[in-house]
Amino acid sequence: MTLDFSDKDVSDFELEAVISKFKKRFNCHPDFVSIAPGRVNLIGGHVDYNGGLVLPLAVDRHTCVAGAKSDEAGVLVVHSVRENESFVVDLDCPMIAARPNWTNYVRGVVHGFLSRGIELPGLKILIDSTIPSGSGLSSSASLEVATAGILEVASGVTLKGNKKPRLCQQAEHEFANVPCGIMDQFAVTFAQRGCMLLLDCRDESIEHVPFDHDQLALVVINSHVRHELSESEYANRHQRCETVSTELGLESLRDLTWSMLDRSRGQFDELSFLCAEHVLRENERTLKFVQHMKNEDWSQAGEMLYQSHVSLSEKFQVSCAELDELVAGARKLGPEEGVLGARMTGAGFGGSVIVLAEREKASDVVSRVVEDYNRIGVPLSRPRASGFVAKPAGGARVIKFVAD
Asked: Of 3, 90, 166, 297, which sits 20 to 30 A from 370 (CA to CA)?
Protein backbone atom coordinates (compact mmCIF):
# COMPACT_ATOMS: atom_id res chain seq x y z
CA MET A 1 0.00 0.00 0.00
CA THR A 2 1.18 3.56 -0.78
CA LEU A 3 -0.20 7.06 -0.31
CA ASP A 4 -1.79 8.67 -3.34
CA PHE A 5 -0.32 12.06 -2.45
CA SER A 6 2.25 13.57 -0.13
CA ASP A 7 1.13 15.23 3.09
CA LYS A 8 3.64 17.73 4.43
CA ASP A 9 1.76 18.92 7.52
CA VAL A 10 1.31 15.58 9.23
CA SER A 11 4.47 13.94 10.49
CA ASP A 12 5.45 10.47 9.37
CA PHE A 13 5.29 9.52 13.04
CA GLU A 14 1.61 10.48 13.32
CA LEU A 15 0.64 8.59 10.17
CA GLU A 16 2.70 5.51 10.93
CA ALA A 17 1.34 5.45 14.47
CA VAL A 18 -2.34 5.49 13.52
CA ILE A 19 -1.81 2.94 10.72
CA SER A 20 0.08 0.60 13.03
CA LYS A 21 -2.54 0.91 15.77
CA PHE A 22 -5.35 0.28 13.28
CA LYS A 23 -3.65 -2.88 11.99
CA LYS A 24 -3.13 -4.13 15.54
CA ARG A 25 -6.73 -3.42 16.51
CA PHE A 26 -8.54 -4.71 13.40
CA ASN A 27 -5.97 -7.03 11.81
CA CYS A 28 -6.17 -5.26 8.44
CA HIS A 29 -4.81 -2.19 6.67
CA PRO A 30 -6.93 0.99 6.68
CA ASP A 31 -8.42 2.12 3.39
CA PHE A 32 -7.98 5.79 4.29
CA VAL A 33 -6.87 8.14 7.06
CA SER A 34 -8.76 11.36 7.74
CA ILE A 35 -6.66 14.09 9.34
CA ALA A 36 -7.73 17.32 11.03
CA PRO A 37 -5.52 19.80 12.87
CA GLY A 38 -5.93 21.48 16.20
CA ARG A 39 -6.18 25.24 16.23
CA VAL A 40 -5.36 28.26 18.32
CA ASN A 41 -7.26 31.51 18.09
CA LEU A 42 -4.78 34.35 17.85
CA ILE A 43 -7.35 37.00 18.67
CA GLY A 44 -11.12 37.38 18.65
CA GLY A 45 -11.94 35.62 21.91
CA HIS A 46 -15.59 34.72 22.55
CA VAL A 47 -16.90 36.74 19.60
CA ASP A 48 -17.60 33.90 17.15
CA TYR A 49 -21.04 33.15 18.60
CA ASN A 50 -21.69 36.90 18.50
CA GLY A 51 -21.20 37.16 14.73
CA GLY A 52 -17.77 38.69 15.24
CA LEU A 53 -14.31 38.61 13.69
CA VAL A 54 -11.87 35.88 14.68
CA LEU A 55 -8.34 34.98 13.64
CA PRO A 56 -7.63 31.27 14.19
CA LEU A 57 -4.58 29.40 12.95
CA ALA A 58 -4.28 25.63 12.56
CA VAL A 59 -1.32 24.05 14.38
CA ASP A 60 0.73 20.95 13.72
CA ARG A 61 -1.07 18.72 16.20
CA HIS A 62 -3.67 16.43 14.67
CA THR A 63 -6.56 14.04 15.10
CA CYS A 64 -6.01 11.06 12.81
CA VAL A 65 -8.97 8.79 12.09
CA ALA A 66 -8.18 5.59 10.20
CA GLY A 67 -10.97 3.64 8.58
CA ALA A 68 -11.70 0.57 6.49
CA LYS A 69 -14.92 -0.74 5.07
CA SER A 70 -16.34 -3.68 6.96
CA ASP A 71 -18.16 -6.80 5.87
CA GLU A 72 -20.71 -6.11 8.59
CA ALA A 73 -23.17 -3.73 6.94
CA GLY A 74 -25.01 -1.15 9.02
CA VAL A 75 -22.48 -1.08 11.86
CA LEU A 76 -19.64 1.25 12.77
CA VAL A 77 -17.08 -0.13 15.20
CA VAL A 78 -15.14 2.77 16.71
CA HIS A 79 -12.09 2.65 18.96
CA SER A 80 -10.26 5.56 20.60
CA VAL A 81 -6.61 5.03 21.45
CA ARG A 82 -6.52 7.93 23.89
CA GLU A 83 -9.62 6.84 25.77
CA ASN A 84 -8.81 3.14 25.41
CA GLU A 85 -12.50 2.58 24.77
CA SER A 86 -14.63 1.24 21.95
CA PHE A 87 -18.28 1.58 21.01
CA VAL A 88 -20.57 0.37 18.27
CA VAL A 89 -22.99 2.46 16.23
CA ASP A 90 -26.01 0.67 14.75
CA LEU A 91 -26.85 2.72 11.67
CA ASP A 92 -30.38 1.31 11.60
CA CYS A 93 -31.27 2.64 15.07
CA PRO A 94 -32.10 6.24 16.03
CA MET A 95 -28.95 8.12 17.04
CA ILE A 96 -28.96 9.50 20.58
CA ALA A 97 -26.34 10.94 22.90
CA ALA A 98 -24.77 8.39 25.23
CA ARG A 99 -21.89 7.80 27.57
CA PRO A 100 -18.94 8.02 27.56
CA ASN A 101 -19.17 11.69 26.58
CA TRP A 102 -16.36 11.63 24.00
CA THR A 103 -18.39 9.29 21.81
CA ASN A 104 -21.02 11.98 21.25
CA TYR A 105 -18.72 13.99 19.00
CA VAL A 106 -18.64 10.97 16.69
CA ARG A 107 -22.30 10.08 17.13
CA GLY A 108 -23.34 13.64 16.34
CA VAL A 109 -21.43 13.66 13.05
CA VAL A 110 -22.81 10.25 12.06
CA HIS A 111 -26.31 11.52 12.83
CA GLY A 112 -25.65 14.57 10.66
CA PHE A 113 -24.85 12.38 7.66
CA LEU A 114 -27.80 10.04 8.19
CA SER A 115 -30.26 12.89 8.73
CA ARG A 116 -29.20 14.30 5.35
CA GLY A 117 -30.07 11.01 3.68
CA ILE A 118 -26.46 9.93 3.14
CA GLU A 119 -26.06 6.16 3.26
CA LEU A 120 -23.04 4.90 5.19
CA PRO A 121 -21.38 1.50 4.79
CA GLY A 122 -20.20 -0.62 7.67
CA LEU A 123 -16.84 0.67 8.90
CA LYS A 124 -13.99 -0.10 11.24
CA ILE A 125 -12.68 3.17 12.70
CA LEU A 126 -9.74 3.98 14.94
CA ILE A 127 -9.10 7.43 16.43
CA ASP A 128 -5.68 8.69 17.50
CA SER A 129 -4.61 12.22 18.39
CA THR A 130 -1.59 14.35 19.23
CA ILE A 131 -3.79 17.27 20.37
CA PRO A 132 -3.73 17.59 24.17
CA SER A 133 -7.33 17.28 25.40
CA GLY A 134 -8.64 20.19 27.45
CA SER A 135 -5.83 22.40 26.15
CA GLY A 136 -7.96 24.94 24.34
CA LEU A 137 -6.64 23.67 20.98
CA SER A 138 -10.07 22.47 19.83
CA SER A 139 -9.59 18.72 20.00
CA SER A 140 -13.38 18.33 19.80
CA ALA A 141 -13.80 20.19 16.49
CA SER A 142 -10.76 18.35 15.14
CA LEU A 143 -12.38 15.01 16.00
CA GLU A 144 -15.69 16.07 14.44
CA VAL A 145 -14.13 17.24 11.19
CA ALA A 146 -11.81 14.22 10.93
CA THR A 147 -14.81 11.92 11.48
CA ALA A 148 -16.74 13.78 8.79
CA GLY A 149 -13.82 13.25 6.40
CA ILE A 150 -13.93 9.49 6.96
CA LEU A 151 -17.69 9.40 6.36
CA GLU A 152 -17.34 11.48 3.19
CA VAL A 153 -14.81 9.19 1.58
CA ALA A 154 -16.60 6.04 2.77
CA SER A 155 -19.99 7.17 1.46
CA GLY A 156 -18.67 8.82 -1.70
CA VAL A 157 -20.56 12.01 -0.81
CA THR A 158 -18.56 15.23 -0.40
CA LEU A 159 -20.01 18.01 1.75
CA LYS A 160 -19.26 21.10 -0.30
CA GLY A 161 -18.67 24.69 0.79
CA ASN A 162 -19.60 25.39 4.40
CA LYS A 163 -21.76 22.29 4.77
CA LYS A 164 -19.14 20.17 6.57
CA PRO A 165 -18.18 22.66 9.32
CA ARG A 166 -21.85 23.52 9.78
CA LEU A 167 -22.74 19.84 10.19
CA CYS A 168 -19.95 19.44 12.75
CA GLN A 169 -21.07 22.51 14.67
CA GLN A 170 -24.60 21.12 14.76
CA ALA A 171 -23.23 17.83 16.08
CA GLU A 172 -21.55 19.65 18.96
CA HIS A 173 -24.71 21.60 19.75
CA GLU A 174 -27.07 18.64 19.70
CA PHE A 175 -24.95 15.75 20.97
CA ALA A 176 -22.26 17.37 23.16
CA ASN A 177 -24.60 20.14 24.36
CA VAL A 178 -21.98 22.84 23.77
CA PRO A 179 -23.40 26.05 22.20
CA CYS A 180 -20.21 26.81 20.26
CA GLY A 181 -19.85 29.28 17.42
CA ILE A 182 -18.55 28.41 13.97
CA MET A 183 -14.90 29.33 14.45
CA ASP A 184 -13.39 25.99 15.46
CA GLN A 185 -14.97 23.87 12.77
CA PHE A 186 -14.30 26.47 10.06
CA ALA A 187 -10.66 26.88 11.11
CA VAL A 188 -10.04 23.13 11.20
CA THR A 189 -11.66 22.70 7.78
CA PHE A 190 -10.39 25.70 5.82
CA ALA A 191 -6.97 26.53 7.29
CA GLN A 192 -4.06 26.95 4.89
CA ARG A 193 -0.44 26.15 5.68
CA GLY A 194 1.50 29.24 6.80
CA CYS A 195 -1.62 31.40 7.14
CA MET A 196 -3.97 32.85 9.70
CA LEU A 197 -7.65 32.63 8.85
CA LEU A 198 -9.61 35.87 9.24
CA LEU A 199 -13.18 34.65 9.57
CA ASP A 200 -16.23 36.89 9.63
CA CYS A 201 -18.66 34.84 11.68
CA ARG A 202 -21.60 36.89 10.45
CA ASP A 203 -21.31 36.31 6.71
CA GLU A 204 -18.83 33.38 6.93
CA SER A 205 -16.36 35.06 4.59
CA ILE A 206 -12.69 34.06 4.90
CA GLU A 207 -9.39 35.80 4.21
CA HIS A 208 -6.14 33.87 4.51
CA VAL A 209 -3.51 36.19 5.98
CA PRO A 210 0.15 35.07 5.79
CA PHE A 211 1.82 34.29 9.10
CA ASP A 212 4.91 32.51 7.85
CA HIS A 213 7.35 35.34 8.49
CA ASP A 214 11.03 34.67 8.99
CA GLN A 215 10.96 36.82 12.12
CA LEU A 216 7.97 35.27 13.93
CA ALA A 217 6.94 32.10 15.70
CA LEU A 218 3.91 31.09 17.70
CA VAL A 219 4.44 29.47 21.09
CA VAL A 220 1.71 27.43 22.82
CA ILE A 221 1.93 26.95 26.59
CA ASN A 222 -0.50 24.40 28.05
CA SER A 223 -1.35 24.94 31.71
CA HIS A 224 -2.86 21.41 31.92
CA VAL A 225 -5.49 23.02 34.16
CA ARG A 226 -9.18 22.55 33.46
CA HIS A 227 -11.57 24.07 35.99
CA GLU A 228 -14.93 22.37 36.40
CA LEU A 229 -16.91 25.55 35.81
CA SER A 230 -15.59 25.96 32.25
CA GLU A 231 -18.58 24.50 30.38
CA SER A 232 -21.27 26.09 32.57
CA GLU A 233 -19.61 29.50 32.50
CA TYR A 234 -19.15 29.29 28.72
CA ALA A 235 -22.89 28.74 28.35
CA ASN A 236 -23.52 31.54 30.86
CA ARG A 237 -21.49 34.08 28.84
CA HIS A 238 -23.18 32.94 25.65
CA GLN A 239 -26.59 33.49 27.21
CA ARG A 240 -25.64 36.93 28.55
CA CYS A 241 -24.55 38.04 25.10
CA GLU A 242 -27.77 36.75 23.56
CA THR A 243 -29.82 38.57 26.21
CA VAL A 244 -28.11 41.89 25.52
CA SER A 245 -28.49 41.59 21.75
CA THR A 246 -32.15 40.55 22.07
CA GLU A 247 -33.00 43.38 24.47
CA LEU A 248 -31.37 45.90 22.13
CA GLY A 249 -33.18 44.48 19.10
CA LEU A 250 -30.00 43.27 17.41
CA GLU A 251 -29.42 40.10 15.43
CA SER A 252 -26.12 39.70 17.28
CA LEU A 253 -23.61 41.81 19.20
CA ARG A 254 -21.73 42.28 15.91
CA ASP A 255 -24.31 45.02 15.21
CA LEU A 256 -23.65 46.78 18.52
CA THR A 257 -22.26 50.34 18.36
CA TRP A 258 -20.63 52.47 21.02
CA SER A 259 -23.60 54.82 21.13
CA MET A 260 -25.97 51.88 21.68
CA LEU A 261 -23.78 50.55 24.44
CA ASP A 262 -23.55 53.93 26.17
CA ARG A 263 -27.33 54.35 26.09
CA SER A 264 -27.80 50.89 27.60
CA ARG A 265 -25.88 51.64 30.82
CA GLY A 266 -28.03 50.56 33.75
CA GLN A 267 -30.22 48.38 31.54
CA PHE A 268 -28.17 45.24 32.20
CA ASP A 269 -26.26 43.75 35.11
CA GLU A 270 -22.58 44.67 35.27
CA LEU A 271 -21.17 41.41 33.90
CA SER A 272 -23.54 41.39 30.91
CA PHE A 273 -22.61 44.99 30.11
CA LEU A 274 -18.90 44.20 30.37
CA CYS A 275 -19.31 41.15 28.11
CA ALA A 276 -20.93 43.34 25.47
CA GLU A 277 -18.14 45.90 25.80
CA HIS A 278 -15.55 43.16 25.37
CA VAL A 279 -17.17 41.92 22.16
CA LEU A 280 -17.27 45.42 20.69
CA ARG A 281 -13.62 46.16 21.49
CA GLU A 282 -12.42 42.67 20.55
CA ASN A 283 -13.76 43.02 17.02
CA GLU A 284 -11.83 46.29 16.72
CA ARG A 285 -8.69 44.69 18.15
CA THR A 286 -8.88 41.81 15.69
CA LEU A 287 -8.85 44.15 12.70
CA LYS A 288 -6.02 46.18 14.21
CA PHE A 289 -3.99 43.02 14.88
CA VAL A 290 -4.39 41.88 11.26
CA GLN A 291 -3.30 45.28 9.96
CA HIS A 292 -0.28 45.36 12.28
CA MET A 293 0.71 41.89 11.07
CA LYS A 294 0.38 42.94 7.44
CA ASN A 295 2.50 46.01 8.19
CA GLU A 296 5.06 43.86 10.04
CA ASP A 297 4.55 46.03 13.13
CA TRP A 298 5.13 43.17 15.54
CA SER A 299 5.22 45.21 18.77
CA GLN A 300 1.78 46.74 18.12
CA ALA A 301 0.40 43.34 17.11
CA GLY A 302 1.69 41.97 20.42
CA GLU A 303 0.05 44.82 22.32
CA MET A 304 -3.32 43.81 20.83
CA LEU A 305 -2.79 40.32 22.29
CA TYR A 306 -2.06 41.71 25.75
CA GLN A 307 -5.13 43.96 25.58
CA SER A 308 -7.27 41.03 24.48
CA HIS A 309 -6.14 38.94 27.44
CA VAL A 310 -6.84 41.70 29.94
CA SER A 311 -10.32 42.11 28.48
CA LEU A 312 -11.03 38.38 28.59
CA SER A 313 -9.81 38.26 32.18
CA GLU A 314 -11.40 41.42 33.58
CA LYS A 315 -14.44 42.08 31.40
CA PHE A 316 -15.56 38.73 29.98
CA GLN A 317 -14.14 37.03 33.08
CA VAL A 318 -13.23 33.70 31.49
CA SER A 319 -9.56 33.52 32.45
CA CYS A 320 -8.14 32.02 35.64
CA ALA A 321 -5.15 32.52 37.92
CA GLU A 322 -3.03 30.01 36.03
CA LEU A 323 -3.58 31.60 32.61
CA ASP A 324 -3.05 35.09 34.01
CA GLU A 325 0.21 33.96 35.57
CA LEU A 326 1.47 32.42 32.32
CA VAL A 327 0.69 35.59 30.38
CA ALA A 328 2.36 37.70 33.05
CA GLY A 329 5.40 35.44 32.97
CA ALA A 330 5.70 35.84 29.21
CA ARG A 331 5.25 39.60 29.40
CA LYS A 332 7.94 39.84 32.07
CA LEU A 333 10.47 38.40 29.61
CA GLY A 334 9.59 41.15 27.18
CA PRO A 335 10.91 41.99 23.70
CA GLU A 336 14.53 41.74 24.81
CA GLU A 337 13.94 38.02 25.46
CA GLY A 338 11.91 37.55 22.30
CA VAL A 339 8.33 37.95 23.61
CA LEU A 340 6.11 40.27 21.56
CA GLY A 341 2.68 39.51 23.04
CA ALA A 342 0.59 36.86 24.79
CA ARG A 343 -2.99 35.95 25.62
CA MET A 344 -5.17 33.04 26.64
CA THR A 345 -6.69 31.02 23.81
CA GLY A 346 -9.79 28.85 23.74
CA ALA A 347 -12.86 29.00 25.96
CA GLY A 348 -10.93 29.79 29.16
CA PHE A 349 -10.88 28.62 32.79
CA GLY A 350 -7.78 26.64 31.95
CA GLY A 351 -6.18 25.33 28.80
CA SER A 352 -3.44 27.23 27.00
CA VAL A 353 -1.94 30.61 26.33
CA ILE A 354 -0.25 31.65 23.12
CA VAL A 355 2.87 33.78 22.83
CA LEU A 356 3.91 35.73 19.74
CA ALA A 357 7.67 35.43 19.75
CA GLU A 358 10.76 36.16 17.69
CA ARG A 359 11.48 33.02 15.71
CA GLU A 360 15.11 32.62 16.76
CA LYS A 361 14.23 32.96 20.45
CA ALA A 362 10.99 30.93 20.47
CA SER A 363 12.45 27.74 21.93
CA ASP A 364 14.04 29.72 24.76
CA VAL A 365 10.71 31.43 25.40
CA VAL A 366 9.04 28.03 25.87
CA SER A 367 11.72 26.94 28.33
CA ARG A 368 11.76 30.17 30.33
CA VAL A 369 7.99 30.58 30.68
CA VAL A 370 7.38 26.91 31.52
CA GLU A 371 10.29 26.63 33.98
CA ASP A 372 9.39 29.81 35.85
CA TYR A 373 5.71 28.85 36.07
CA ASN A 374 6.46 25.30 37.22
CA ARG A 375 8.98 26.42 39.82
CA ILE A 376 6.49 28.81 41.39
CA GLY A 377 3.76 26.18 41.21
CA VAL A 378 5.58 23.47 43.19
CA PRO A 379 4.10 24.45 46.60
CA LEU A 380 0.66 24.91 45.01
CA SER A 381 0.45 21.26 43.88
CA ARG A 382 -0.98 22.31 40.54
CA PRO A 383 -0.37 20.57 37.18
CA ARG A 384 2.94 21.30 35.50
CA ALA A 385 2.79 23.39 32.34
CA SER A 386 4.35 22.34 29.05
CA GLY A 387 4.84 24.08 25.73
CA PHE A 388 5.87 23.85 22.11
CA VAL A 389 6.61 26.04 19.11
CA ALA A 390 3.67 25.62 16.75
CA LYS A 391 3.83 25.54 12.97
CA PRO A 392 0.88 27.03 11.04
CA ALA A 393 -0.66 23.94 9.44
CA GLY A 394 -3.11 23.21 6.68
CA GLY A 395 -6.72 22.21 7.17
CA ALA A 396 -8.45 18.84 7.15
CA ARG A 397 -7.84 16.29 4.40
CA VAL A 398 -8.11 12.57 3.69
CA ILE A 399 -5.26 10.32 2.64
CA LYS A 400 -6.35 7.37 0.53
CA PHE A 401 -4.35 4.23 0.09
CA VAL A 402 -3.85 2.60 -3.28
CA ALA A 403 -2.48 -0.79 -4.19
CA ASP A 404 1.22 -0.96 -5.10
From this structure: 297
